[in-house]
Every structure is written in structure tokens, then in C-alpha cells.
């Protein structure tokens, strides 16, 4: 009798251990998920980034750290209107200005570009 019951006891004990184990894994995942949510908060901060920050991320490589130009032309003293500049930022140009670099930020950055001296 004792011998036939033993395997069930082992399975029972194993099941309890497994449940403990899984709940610890679950706790770990919960912490990871909430950490990811905090990371997601940073992403929304990016949306609210200032034009300078956007420039430093997406434009500086071609237009220079002082807007003096490089691969692209200097961006100081632009005579184009914010609307024209926005169109350049959205669509790019055939001569090497890539469009769509800063989706949703074009208005703010176009306004800001007109203030560069
Ligand atoms: C891969 C290099 C590259 C990157 C990155 C880049 N540009 Fe340009 N940009 C150019 C080039 C090249 C031109 C000139 C295009 C032409 O003459 O048609 C240009 C032209 C422009 C113009 C028009 C200037 C004028 O006098 O008409 C503006 C405004 C501009 N870029 C803004 C930006 C902004 C803002 C960013 C970042 C979101 C950016 N660019 C990122 C290469 C780049």
C-alpha cells in the first residue's frame, strides 16, 4: 500500500514546489513589466523634447553642432517660411535632405529653425 502511494506523494510535492516557483517567476515578471512601463514614460518625454534636443538627435550629423552645415547646408538665417520648412522636414528634398525624420515634431522644429541666427 505504502509503495503504491509514494509516486502520488512525489507528484504532489513536486506540484507544490512548482507553484511556488512559478509565483516567484511571476513576481519577477511583474517587476520587469513595471520597469518597462517606467521606460515607456521616457518615450513620452521624447515626444515633449525641445527642438534643440530633436536637432541634436536627428539633424546634427548633417547640419553641424552650430547649425553651420556639413553634408547639408547651414540652417542659420533661413529665409523660408515655417510652412515651407515643415514641408522640407516632412517630405525631404531630392538633393539629400531625408523626409520623415521627426514625425509629429515638424511644426515645432520648423518654427524653431526660423529663429536660428
Ligand atoms: C542625411 C543628412 C541630413 C540629415 C540627417 C538632415 N538633413 Fe537637412 N538637409 C540635408 C541636405 C543634403 C540638404 C540640402 C537639400 C537640398 O538642397 O535639396 C538639407 C536641407 C535642409 C533644409 C533646407 C535648408 C534651406 O536652406 O532650404 C532644412 C530646413 C533642413 N535640412 C533641416 C533639417 C532638420 C531640422 C533635420 C533634422 C530633423 C535635418 N535637416 C536632417 C541633409 C540632412
Automatic annotation (TrEMBL):
SUPFAM superfamilies documented for this protein: Cytochrome c
PROSITE patterns: CYTC
Protein name per its UniProtKB record: Cytochrome c550
Transmembrane portions of the chain: 6-27
Keyword field contains Magnesium: no
Pfam families (alphabetical): Cytochrome_CBB3
Assigned keywords, A-Z: Electron transport, Heme, Iron, Membrane, Metal-binding, Transmembrane, Transmembrane helix, Transport
Chain ranges of the Cytochrome c domain: 46-117
